[in-house]
Amino acid sequence: MNDKEIPLFNKDRDRFYKRMSNEQHVMFNSILEVPFTFVEAKAGSGKTTVAFAAGIDMLANGVISKIIYIIKPSKRSYANGYLPGDLEQKTAQLYYAAYDALEVLGFSQRDIQALINTEQVMLITDNNLRGVNLMDCLVIIDEGQNMGVSDLRLVLTRIHDDSKCVLLGDSRQSDNPGDKEHCFVDYGNYMVEHIGRKVELTRNFRGRLSRIAEEYEPLE
Question: What crossing angle do the helices spanning 183-195 and 149-156 adopt, rounded to 10°?
Fold first, then answer.
């Protein structure tokens, strides 16, 4: 089997689809139906996996030719300092959520690398976008709460009309303390008003400990 012959549908993907909650189905269908989907979701809600599931569906049906996953390096990632290896190895840590989502959907590490090699899946940071056109694709913007207005504008203004976009984020989990944390909510709502749909995922699927931690509110 060569890189181009990787089956996009498999039993794990089918099982995930059947297990999706009603909210996740709404998100999945929104990505297929409208140009822009804004997902304000709790941690552990499966938002990245649902986004990739929709993208794989679109790939398999010839609606798009690639999935472009975009994330902004946060102050937390810069705190790691110098990392060994080439550029791909240095940035791999940023894409754990994408790899994890694809593994849940039944893709092995070898399959994922083949999807990347054939550019059916592209994992990039916002630093690589100046002058780029995003065409014939699903753009997944993850951890949107770490982006400012100029960051989001840089990505969104590069998307052509033959593409779709999903903006994911959790306003309670900014990795850039001190910045204007919630502008992504305002920007997302603005886009929804003009060209898209907003979806909320309210359930944390990781378990009781994670849900309790998510609900903590610091004392004033």
Answer: 30
**Residue 211 neighbours by CB distance under 10 Å:** 15
Beta bridge partners of 87: none
Summarize pLDDT for 95-114 with one digit per residue, the tens. 999 999 999 999 999 999 99
pTM, whole model, 2 decimals? 0.86
CA-based R_g, the chain, Å? 17
Contacts of 111 (CB under 8 A, 6+ apart): 6, 102
Closest CA to 164 of 26, 38, 43: 38
Q: Measured between alpha carbons, how far is 157 from 168 in angstroms, rounded to an integer?
A: 17
The size of the chain, in residues, is 220
Helices (H), the chain: 11-19, 22-33, 47-60, 75-78, 87-91, 96-104, 109-117, 149-156, 183-195, 208-215
